[in-house]
């Protein structure tokens, strides 16, 4: 019989004696070819608590071994993590698959690795660093803890040092001695440390940044974080999921593995059953290869409920450390966070402290609109209201140079009396816009950026009360009424695309005439608002010279000079003008 190479069997001409390989032989040969051509190992790191390590009761589920999955032989028990010395082919009863006693706990990371091998045919090498009941701070370096004024629980081991030691020791033993990880799998949060969403997200962001700074992860590393067990799919579980979504904003490579339908072990409560750990591991693998767009709140506004927002307690009404960023980064919370309590009527809610003010800002900063009026609406549920507490909207302002200008606020027209919201629901709603817009709240004339916030003032009897924000809406005008891009006059004319536009002179001339505005494709009745893009240059809208029908020429020499028009046939007819600069 003629001997052939694997490539010849699959892709070449048959030998003279017409040997026909069996399908099983073809599969084996194909595996050899793929392994040879994709021979680069796949290296992953597992971090977390009990569900990342396994628990003694979670013995059910698939435990079929795989010769292509190699695990670093570290072990964990109680609060002790023991460093490994070598990679071994994964086998239950051998570290780290030796949690509990025979028949041993199932393992999430092992099943993730096995599923990834089945998908990629890349031999798996995995390092696991996990201990039960360990907070996120266990994975944060002493320096980063100090820099953020965080503290590692006294009964938690230093898993940051353990993680770095394991990576330093294990990676050189992987074939090819890679220096970076292909994937990081994280499951942590079931300890209910009551962290706010932004704080929990920030802590894991610090861990990931630590790994990035050390060169272990980069833009090609897949990061998968898992949802809590189904038994925790309550308010706390939703808050944890929101935290994972928040992490995605800063780390777009983060994927989320959902736990829907995976039961916990009856005796472990928050721990997955062994069968669930096996299935969850495969979900981690699926998530690693999925396309998940980072979760963003609505384009306008942000979630201010206890499940997804920030909280500041302040006696000054506006002291917080802001992180101004046009990419909609979050503000950093200050140390003084109000109490979060589980109320029988409200669920997880805010408890406003006596003798204090509570401020819940949106997590984003926005540009002050040039035109149009916006509406902000809060729906609040209050319990144990002392009768004289004050709830209203507050807006923080920054100028063009991003210098913080302070805060301003309003209550709905006519204000609110305590009876309007005592121990029940109340809707706080009002409008805001540029100076002269007639809105309930008008921005300062030099404000360029703002952040909306909800304010709860202390009761007159200095008593605490509980409340939650059931709904938050920050509504912009329709898209065609929102500000369009800056347009420049060319030979006295401009073309438009939106309901409002800043207009600049041709070639940055000190003054320019505007006599014609495009009408192509624009329906009758369309309204248009225009205003100078630069207050140092003058725009003169000319009556009757082109297709503008005005109540006389209008000289706009201030950024707040505004001309509103309506399209009638081929003409633009003046509706109103605001001559602020005149």
Could you give a quick summary of the protein structure above?
The protein is built from nine helices and 32 strands. The chain has four domains: 1-37, no CATH class; 43-288, Rossmann fold (3-Layer(aba) Sandwich); 312-477, Sandwich (Jelly Rolls); 480-578.
CATH topology of the largest domain: Rossmann fold
Work out the radius of gyration: 31 Å
Instruction: Tell me which CATH architecture of the largest domain applies here.
Output: 3-Layer(aba) Sandwich
User: Could you give the distance between the termini?
Assistant: 100 Å
Helix fraction, binned, reads 10-25%
Secondary structure: number of strands: 32
Number of helices: 9
Note poorly predicted spans: 295-337, 412-423
**How many discrete structural domains?**
4
Please, could you describe this protein's structure?
With 582 residues, this protein is an alpha/beta fold. It folds into 4 domains: 1-37, no CATH class; 43-288, 3-Layer(aba) Sandwich (Rossmann fold); 312-477, Jelly Rolls (Sandwich), CATH 2.60.120; 480-578. It has 9 helices and 32 strands. A 7-stranded mixed beta sheet has the order 5-2-6-1-7-8-9, sandwiched between helices. Strands 10, 13, 14, 16, 17 and 20 form a 6-stranded antiparallel beta sheet that branches. The longest helix is centred in the middle third of the chain and has 17 residues, at 197-213. The protein is elongated. The N and C termini lie far apart (100 Å). Residues 295-337 and 412-423 have low confidence and may be disordered.
């Amino acid at each position: 019989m003629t001997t052939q190479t694997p490539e010849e069997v699959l892709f070449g001409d048959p030998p003279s004696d017409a040997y026909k390989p069996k399908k099983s032989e073809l599969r084996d040969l194909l595996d050899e070819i793929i392994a040879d051509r994709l021979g680069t190992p796949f290296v992953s790191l597992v971090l977390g608590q009990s569900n990342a390590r396994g628990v003694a009761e979670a013995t059910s589920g698939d435990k079929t071994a795989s010769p292509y999955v190699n695990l670093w032989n570290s072990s964990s028990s109680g609060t002790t993590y023991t460093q490994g010395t070598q990679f071994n082919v994964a086998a239950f009863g051998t570290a780290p698959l030796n949690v509990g006693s025979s028949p041993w706990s199932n393992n999430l990371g092992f099943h993730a690795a096995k599923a990834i091998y089945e998908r990629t045919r890349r031999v798996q090498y995995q390092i696991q660093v996990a201990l039960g009941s360990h907070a996120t701070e266990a994975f944060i370096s002493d320096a980063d803890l100090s820099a953020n004024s965080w503290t590692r629980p006294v009964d938690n081991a230093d898993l940051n040092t353990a993680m770095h030691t394991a990576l330093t020791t294990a990676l050189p033993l992987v074939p090819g001695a890679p220096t970076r990880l292909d994937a990081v799998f994280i499951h942590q949060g079931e300890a209910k440390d009551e962290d706010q969403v932004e704080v929990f997200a920030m802590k894991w962001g610090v861990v990931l940044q630590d790994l990035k700074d050390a060169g272990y992860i980069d833009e090609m590393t897949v990061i998968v974080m898992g949802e809590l067990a189904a038994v925790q799919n309550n308010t706390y579980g939703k808050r944890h999921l929101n935290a994972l979504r928040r992490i995605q904003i800063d780390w777009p490579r983060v994927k989320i593995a959902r736990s829907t339908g995976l039961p916990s072990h009856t005796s472990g409560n928050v721990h997955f059953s062994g069968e669930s750990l096996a299935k969850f591991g495969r979900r981690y693998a699926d998530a690693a290869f999925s396309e998940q767009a980072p979760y963003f709140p609505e384009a306008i506004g942000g979630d201010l409920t206890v499940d997804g927002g920030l909280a500041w307690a302040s006696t000054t009404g506006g002291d917080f450390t802001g992180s101004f960023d046009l990419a909609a980064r979050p503000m950093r919370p200050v140390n003084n966070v109000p109490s979060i309590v589980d109320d029988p009527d409200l669920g997880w809610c805010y408890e406003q402290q006596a003798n204090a003010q509570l401020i819940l800002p949106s997590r984003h900063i926005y540009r002050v609109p040039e035109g149009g009026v916006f509406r902000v609406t809060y729906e609040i549920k209050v319990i144990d209201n002392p009768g004289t507490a004050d709830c209203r909207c507050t807006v923080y302002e920054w100028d063009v140079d991003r210098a913080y200008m302070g805060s301003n606020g309003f209550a709905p027209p006519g204000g609110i009396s305590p009876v309007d919201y005592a121990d029940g629901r109340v809707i706080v709603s009002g409008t805001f816009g540029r100076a002269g817009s007639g809105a309930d709240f008008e921005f300062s004339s030099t404000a360029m950026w703002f952040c909306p916030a909800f304010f709860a003032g202390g009761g007159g009897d200095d008593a605490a009360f509980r409340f939650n924000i059931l709904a938050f809406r920050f509504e912009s005008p329709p898209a065609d009424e929102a500000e369009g891009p800056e347009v420049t006059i060319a030979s006295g004319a401009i073309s438009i695309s939106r309901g409002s536009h800043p207009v600049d002179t041709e070639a940055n001339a000190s003054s320019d005439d505007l006599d014609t505005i495009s009408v192509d494709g624009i329906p009758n009745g369309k309204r248009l608002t225009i205003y100078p893009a630069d207050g140092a240059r003058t725009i003169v809208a000319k009556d009757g010279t082109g297709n503008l029908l005005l109540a006389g020429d209008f000289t706009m020499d201030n950024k707040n000079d505004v001309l509103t028009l309506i399209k009638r046939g081929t003409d633009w007819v003046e509706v109103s003008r605001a001559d602020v600069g005149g």
